[in-house]
């Protein structure tokens, strides 16, 4: 009978325990949970993951993704806050019992019984810590959290939410602000400080209460020694390390570009850019140095790209990102300005491609009248006949306008658009003034254009995120190399190294803009100086002001230039006397076409697709005076031919064929050879 009663009592006890367990399960499962998806700061990173800039969340707090955290910090945190964190289910009965007994004995709270999970519950709900109802609610949420999340996920929430005073939340925001570093590698003193502050975030802020912060850090170190986390000697050494007494500003590297990419894609949490963080900082320092002794309004912008990949490595929108008389908040890398003479290399490259000229061709530098448009050279001096090479190096206006007249301004505008430039015409219609800067472009546009010249005439759009788009041809490889060869022969600024950097300067009308863009075998760098409001800067010249900055930028980019490529196999590298007769002196294509009896390409017709025969491409000319010279993409392929038909050994692809007769008259056709 007694045994039966015991069995009944045991069964009843098990039933009640099971019922209680089920009731607790239902109670925990029914817990209304706070949102677990936390908004964190939008971050902009360099190519290696270095933080360039972060933005506060909607309520103005700094709350960053934790990222890698020093293991010593995590060990100290668990030892100090919740030694049995990895063993309990959200509530530590031993810690709660100890806290209750101490409170009864001393009449006040001596130690807390909250686990890390309970602290996460409190932080998620932003509830208080002292009231019994609040503590019970935290216990319930903690039990629910433990059922839904892993220990690592709970710890990750703590690392995001732990308060560090002011508007700082989370280990990473605190480490960057107080220590000026990421929390991936911390000293014992730094780790202990970051463990201590959240216990009383306003009372232990080292920037306001360094003595309290130091005392709290000592207690964390002592607990870490007792728990065997660190040795006593290491803790003693850590006590000697000074406590930081001020907050450091969050990184604001490449701020203009960071603003642009976040505005373009506001939903992306992390933007990984192609920028080189160290180079960006060096060039931002150079920008500050450049303008600091030149009044309060002069501004500078810089852009560096790897023209092989199209990656932008540095982008400096202004000398300082602030509202000052320089209008530093404006991003001058994308501001519309007049390019001055920066378009001349493209003009010459197109002329070389069209068979209008060669670097050794003689051009006229004399007064000219283009239907009422009478341009002048910058120095108002005329030099008579001059080689195309020298005319470009001296940046003479008359030869450039004459070539543009022969090409047609619309051809120049079309080439700019092919290069990815978005030119803005003041009057809407292109005129010859475009050749001398009568068009609106940006520094980004000009770096994009010169990158194509540096890449052998192939356009590869510059980019700061993701992969570059496939390239397309703007100029033939020969013409692009000829332009680069000419620009690399320009004399460097006084005091700069004679390193054969291919570069060009420009000064806009009214001395409003000073430019310098240059490239070597791998990189292209663009410099702009002027006033952000577009007012003139008396005495400013690209050669005097921007070119020295360009050479200093290359010096901060790398110790030595990468060599430019050798001449292509088909490049005609001869003197003027050895050129085909029609290429020795430039004659306007318009004038040639206006002369009766000029040559015409009888075959292949313009715009045709032609099959390549065994001997190449058959061509035929009508009219004109023999001998004839044929050019393909600006390179001579048949010289002084007496006959009107011939076979040209040409590769498949898109070709611009030109034929020039003995009187310098010419015709051309564009075909695709298959």
TrEMBL record:
It comes from the Bacteria. Residues 301-509 form the Penicillin-binding protein transpeptidase domain. Its EC number is 2.4.99.28. SUPFAM superfamilies: beta-lactamase/transpeptidase-like, Lysozyme-like. InterPro entries: Beta-lactam/transpept-like, Glyco_trans_51, Glycosyltr_51/Transpeptidase, Lysozyme-like_dom_sf, PBP_1c, PBP_C, PBP_transglycosylase, PCN-bd_Tpept. The keyword Transferase applies. It holds the Pfam family Transgly. Residues 69-223 form the Glycosyl transferase family domain. Keywords: Carboxypeptidase, Glycosyltransferase, Hydrolase, Multifunctional enzyme, Protease, Signal, Transferase. Residues 1-20 form the signal peptide. Transmembrane segments: none annotated. It catalyses: [GlcNAc-(1->4)-Mur2Ac(oyl-L-Ala-gamma-D-Glu-L-Lys-D-Ala-D-Ala)](n)-di-trans,octa-cis-undecaprenyl diphosphate + beta-D-GlcNAc-(1->4)-Mur2Ac(oyl-L-Ala-gamma-D-Glu-L-Lys-D-Ala-D-Ala)-di-trans,octa-cis-undecaprenyl diphosphate = [GlcNAc-(1->4)-Mur2Ac(oyl-L-Ala-gamma-D-Glu-L-Lys-D-Ala-D-Ala)](n+1)-di-trans,octa-cis-undecaprenyl diphosphate + di-trans,octa-cis-undecaprenyl diphosphate + H(+). It is an enzyme of class 2 (transferase). The keyword Transcription regulation does not apply. Residues 594-671 form the Penicillin-binding C-terminal domain. Pathway: Cell wall biogenesis; peptidoglycan biosynthesis. In the C-terminal section; belongs to the transpeptidase family. In the N-terminal section; belongs to the glycosyltransferase 51 family. NCBIfam families: PBP_1c (TIGR02073). PANTHER family: BINDING PROTEIN TRANSPEPTIDASE, PUTATIVE-RELATED, PENICILLIN-BINDING PROTEIN 1C. This is peptidoglycan glycosyltransferase.
């Amino acid at each position: 009978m007694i045994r039966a009663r015991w069995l009944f009592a045991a069964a009843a006890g098990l039933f009640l325990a099971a019922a209680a367990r089920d009731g607790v399960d239902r109670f925990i499962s029914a817990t209304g949970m706070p949102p677990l998806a936390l908004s964190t700061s939008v971050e902009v990173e360099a190519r290696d993951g270095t933080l360039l800039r972060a933005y506060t969340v909607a309520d103005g707090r700094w709350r960053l993704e934790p990222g890698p955290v020093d293991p010593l910090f995590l060990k100290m945190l668990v030892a100090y806050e919740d030694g049995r964190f990895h063993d309990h289910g959200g509530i530590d009965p031993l810690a709660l019992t100890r806290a209750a007994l101490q409170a009864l004995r001393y009449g006040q709270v001596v130690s807390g019984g909250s686990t890390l999970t309970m602290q996460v519950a409190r932080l998620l709900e932003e509830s208080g810590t002292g009231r019994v109802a609040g503590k019970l609610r935290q216990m319930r949420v903690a039990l629910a959290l433990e059922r839904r999340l892993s220990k690592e996920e709970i710890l990750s929430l703590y690392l995001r939410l732990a308060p560090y005073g002011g508007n700082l939340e989370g280990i990473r925001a605190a480490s960057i602000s107080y220590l000026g570093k990421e929390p991936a590698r911390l000293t014992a003193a730094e780790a202990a400080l970051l463990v201590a502050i959240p216990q009383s975030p306003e009372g232990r802020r080292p920037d306001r209460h360094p003595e309290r912060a130091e005392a709290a850090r000592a207690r964390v170190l002592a607990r870490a020694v007792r728990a065997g986390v660190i040795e006593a000697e290491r803790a003693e050494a850590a006590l000697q390390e000074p406590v930081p007494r001020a907050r450091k500003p969050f990184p604001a590297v490449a701020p203009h570009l960071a603003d642009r990419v976040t505005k373009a894609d506001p939903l992306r949490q992390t933007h990984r850019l192609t920028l080189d963080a160290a180079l960006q900082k060096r060039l931002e320092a150079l920008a500050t140095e450049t303008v600091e002794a030149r009044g309060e309004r002069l501004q500078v912008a810089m852009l560096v790209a790897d023209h092989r990949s199209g990656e932008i490595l540095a982008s400096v929108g202004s000398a300082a990102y602030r509202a000052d008389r320089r209008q530093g908040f404006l991003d001058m890398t994308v501001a519309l300005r007049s390019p001055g003479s920066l378009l001349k290399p493209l003009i010459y490259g197109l002329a070389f491609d069209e068979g209008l000229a060669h670097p050794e061709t003689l051009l006229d530098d004399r007064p000219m009248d283009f239907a009422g448009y009478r341009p002048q050279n910058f120095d108002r001096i005329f030099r008579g006949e001059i080689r195309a090479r020298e005319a470009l190096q001296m940046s003479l206006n008359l030869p450039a306008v004459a070539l543009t007249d022969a090409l047609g301004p619309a051809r120049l505008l079309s080439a700019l658009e092919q290069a990815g430039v978005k030119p803005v015409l003041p009057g809407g219609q292109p005129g010859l003034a475009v050749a001398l800067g009568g068009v609106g472009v940006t520094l980004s546009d000009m770096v994009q254009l010169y990158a194509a010249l540096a890449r052998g005439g192939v356009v590869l759009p510059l980019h700061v995120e993701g992969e570059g788009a496939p390239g397309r041809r703007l100029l033939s490889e020969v013409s692009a190399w000829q332009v680069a060869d000419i620009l690399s022969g320009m004399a460097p600024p006084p005091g700069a190294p004679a390193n054969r950097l291919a570069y060009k300067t420009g000064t806009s009308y009214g001395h409003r803009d000073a430019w310098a863009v240059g490239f070597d075998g791998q990189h292209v760098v663009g410099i702009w100086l002027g006033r952000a409001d577009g007012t003139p800067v008396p005495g400013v010249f690209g050669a005097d002001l921007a070119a020295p900055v360009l050479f200093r930028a290359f010096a901060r980019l790398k110790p030595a230039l990468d060599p430019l490529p050798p001449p292509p196999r088909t490049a005609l590298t001869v003197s003027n006397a050895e050129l085909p007769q029609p290429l020795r002196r430039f004659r306007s294509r318009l004038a040639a076409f206006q002369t009766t009896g000029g040559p015409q390409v009888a075959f292949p017709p313009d715009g045709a697709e032609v099959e390549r025969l065994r001997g190449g491409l058959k061509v035929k000319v009508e009219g004109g005076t023999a001998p004839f010279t044929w050019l393909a993409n600006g390179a001579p392929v048949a010289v002084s031919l007496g006959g009107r038909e011939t076979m040209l050994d040409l590769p498949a692809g898109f070709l611009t064929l030109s034929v020039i007769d003995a009187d310098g008259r010419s015709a051309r056709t564009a075909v695709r050879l298959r």
